[in-house]
Amino acid sequence: MQPDPAVGSDQHIRLHMHLGRDSLLFSLFVACAAGFVWFTSLGLPGSVASHFGTEGIPNGFMSHDAYVGFMLSFVVGFPVLLVVLTWLAMASPKARIKLPRGDYWLAHERRAETVARLRNSILRFGVMLEVFLCYAHWLVVLANEANPARLSESWFIGGLIVFGGGMLVWLIALLDHFRHGA
Description:
- The chain contains 5 helices and 2 strands; from the N terminus they run αββαααα.
- By secondary structure, it is mainly alpha-helical.
- It has one domain (9-180).
């Protein structure tokens, strides 16, 4: 992979160092998320209120072990699958990547750096997703501590708003780079 002379070798090196750092950060978040789900699930009851309807009233239950297994699979598996599949899809030189000023960014001499930047970005999104999924799990844990079990809808909606806002900032920053960077 040859660095783009217009981008400069220093920027090329920094971009790939960020890719390594962001990969490590994402892996750390995945491991911490797994530990968080495992540890916080220890005190859950034998029958866990796992699905909630209007006003936070539970309408679905799982055994403790099934809930923990599902949450570990979901909290770890979903973000990892999202990142890995995106990375694999972008690895192909024939991958259809749609970007502002795509002719410029996906030109042969800049494609590797563009893909590295996109990979860094998807890792950051994966971290945000990990945090949100752990937050949702934490709300389920808190809901199961109440008697009767009840999920705080306002906290859940607040979390969705914060996550949505974070996604919006992430997307605007990503698109802004490709619109104005160079």
